[in-house]
Amino acid sequence: MEKDLVEYIVKSLVDDPSSVQVNVIEGEKSTILELRVAPDDIGKVIGKHGRIAKAIRTVLQAATAKSGKRTVLEILD
């Protein structure tokens, strides 16, 4: 569910949606989502002063709040 949410949000932001990749790493108490996008689209995902990245993380936290697990979004370049 988290993976689909992040993919949907990021694909609507970038110029090259086919290059969006989300890798899920499950842990006991947390889930790590590794996000990769085209090099030209990194700025669009992070935003000025990290505002867009922070907004995506906030939506992700709200969506996973009931599960009790912590979800972390890492944007890889």
TrEMBL record:
Compartments, record wording: Cytoplasm
GO biological process, one term: peptidoglycan biosynthetic process
SUPFAM superfamilies recorded: Prokaryotic type KH domain (KH-domain type II) (SSF54814)
GO cellular component, one term: cytoplasm
UniProt-recorded Gene Ontology molecular function terms: RNA binding
Keyword annotations: Cell shape, Cell wall biogenesis/degradation, Chaperone, Cytoplasm, RNA-binding
Pfam families listed in its UniProt record: KH_KhpA-B (PF13083)
Record field: transmembrane: none
Domain of life where this protein originates: Bacteria
Subunit field text: Forms a complex with KhpB.
Described purpose of this protein according to its UniProt entry: A probable RNA chaperone. Forms a complex with KhpB which binds to cellular RNA and controls its expression. Plays a role in peptidoglycan (PG) homeostasis and cell length regulation.
NCBIfam families for the chain: PRK00468.1
UniProt similarity note: Belongs to the KhpA RNA-binding protein family.
Protein name in the entry: RNA-binding protein KhpA
